[in-house]
């Protein structure tokens, strides 16, 4: 099979470029999708509309979390199965993942549409933001099946050696989102109603393109072969559970930060955090793209017992993460004001608060790249427990501790400082896990 030869024999540096660059671009584009809503709403409707989207963000993050559990967990399992020569098992995993995704998406659709008001209220929307946040959730929920399938098919397409397909679908989706946001928000003046429609239709476009390779019966993974298997479904869900924990943690931390900023600085604080959040998301997705891109390569070679190739891939990836992290810190210190002005151009209070926060928050990027890479690595080799530990530490435990303690001593600066501190502490946990031999089956990687 072609993908066997590529994943198991091609030079690692070439595989890194071939798989990580499309994944970086695809995930970055996916992240930009949410920024597009913020840019159009912030500039053509107002900062409160942008803040309303951020209040609703945990709902989208939970949706993405469910998708990542199935997609990343399934891709890791499929990659290792193909590496071991277990093609039928790989086909069954693919079929199980797709059918489970459809069923779960329908549940999300019903809950999101029916209880949008209650969800918005629970997520912290006050009287000013409640109506818009509820509307965003209700409309976005209608597109849950297309959002879910676009994500998992985009991940699975890498397992059959076609990483560029998801890139093409992502680019098409981005253009669709920009055009639809322009038409629906600026031209038709639909405001908060137009944003989720544009986002939902853009993900639908991505799904239609990403599905094309799996229509062919000759593909090693396709919609026609394989059978649904509850046991395999349970195994892929467990294997991908750390990705779900990461998204759950992101949803919880967004909720916690929204509450903290609302309490300290009101809607201005939430809007400032929203602007920084968009920049942070964009930066983090670059490293997440590396992790997602190399995942199938690591899984395949780990399953084939080619541990030297796994080591080479992780060495390259870690060096790249450190270079990108340093570059992002420099970029934010030099051009942070201009980045923030993409989202907030007419509110000096929000701009000043966000500019102050960005210079504290920027130190996050020195550390989070390695944490993201090693969490993804653990998932790729089937060590879900270690990946879960890393995800829980960086996204929940240390965030909740920091947000509870730091603002008490240094006010709003303590809120901004919470994430960098959490990433530093998490890196110590990663080093501990690695050094203490919790990963005895893993090859020796870079020195932490």
Summarize the structure.
InterPro entries: MATE_fam, MATE_MepA-like, MATE_MepA_subfamily, MdtK-like. This protein has about 450 residues and is an all-alpha fold.
Structural class: mainly alpha
Spatial separation of the terminal alpha carbons: 36 Å
Uncertain runs are 438-448
Provide the β-strand percentage band. Answer: under 5%
Question: What about the largest sheet?
Answer: none
What's the overall geometry?
globular
Helix content percent band: over 70%
Rounded mean pLDDT is 82
Structure description:
By secondary structure, the protein is mostly helical. It has one domain (2-435). The protein contains 16 helices and no strands. The longest helix has 63 residues, at 241-303. The protein is globular and about 60 Å long. Residues 438-448 have low confidence and may be disordered. It comes from Turicibacter bilis. One of its GO terms (biological process) is response to antibiotic. Keywords: Antibiotic resistance, Cell membrane, Membrane, Transmembrane, Transmembrane helix, Transport. Belongs to the multi antimicrobial extrusion (MATE) (TC 2.A.66.1) family. MepA subfamily.
């Amino acid at each position: 099979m072609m993908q066997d030869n590529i994943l198991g024999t091609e030079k690692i540096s070439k595989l890194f470029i071939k798989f990580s660059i499309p994944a970086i671009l695809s995930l970055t584009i996916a992240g930009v999708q949410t920024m597009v809503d913020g840019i159009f709403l912030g500039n053509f409707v107002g900062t409160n509309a942008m803040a309303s989207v951020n209040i609703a963000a945990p709902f989208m993050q939970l949706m993405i979390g469910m998708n990542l559990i199935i997609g990343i967990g399934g891709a890791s399992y499929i990659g290792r199965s193909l590496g071991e020569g277990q093609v039928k098992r790989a086909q069954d995993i693919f079929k199980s993942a797709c059918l489970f995704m459809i069923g779960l998406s329908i549940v999300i659709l019903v809950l999101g549409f029916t209880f949008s008001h209650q969800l918005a209220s629970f997520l912290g929307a006050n009287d000013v933001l409640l109506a818009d946040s509820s509307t965003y959730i209700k409309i976005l929920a209608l597109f849950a099946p297309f959002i879910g399938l676009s994500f998992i098919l985009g991940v699975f397409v890498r397992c059959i050696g076609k990483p560029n397909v998801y890139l093409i679908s992502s680019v098409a989706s981005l253009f669709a989102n920009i055009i639809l946001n322009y038409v629906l928000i600026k031209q038709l003046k639909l405001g908060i109603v137009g944003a989720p429609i544009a986002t939902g239709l853009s993900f639908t476009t991505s799904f239609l393109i990403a599905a094309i390779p799996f229509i062919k019966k000759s593909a090693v993974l396709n919609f026609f072969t394989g059978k649904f298997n509850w046991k395999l479904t349970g195994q892929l869900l467990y294997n991908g559970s750390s990705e779900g924990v990461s998204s759950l943690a992101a949803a919880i931390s967004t909720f916690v930060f929204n509450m903290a900023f609302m309490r300290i600085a009101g809607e201005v604080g939430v809007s400032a955090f929203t602007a920084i959040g968009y920049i942070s998301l964009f930066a983090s997705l670059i490293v997440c793209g590396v992790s997602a891109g190399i995942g199938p390569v690591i899984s395949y070679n780990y399953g084939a017992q080619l541990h030297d190739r796994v080591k080479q891939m992780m060495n390259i990836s870690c060096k790249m993460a450190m270079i990108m992290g340093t570059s992002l810190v420099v970029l934010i210190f030099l051009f942070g004001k201009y980045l923030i002005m993409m989202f907030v151009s007419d509110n000096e209070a929000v701009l000043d608060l966000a500019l102050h926060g960005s210079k504290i928050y920027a130190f996050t990027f020195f550390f989070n790249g390695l944490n993201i890479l090693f969490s993804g690595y653990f998932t790729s080799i089937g060590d879900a427990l270690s990946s879960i530990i890393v995800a829980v530490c960086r996204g929940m435990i240390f965030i909740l501790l920091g947000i509870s303690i730091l603002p008490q001593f240094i006010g709003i600066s303590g809120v901004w400082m919470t994430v960098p501190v959490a990433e530093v502490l998490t890196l110590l946990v990663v080093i501990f896990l690695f050094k203490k031999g919790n990963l005895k089956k893993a090859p020796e990687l870079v020195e932490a």
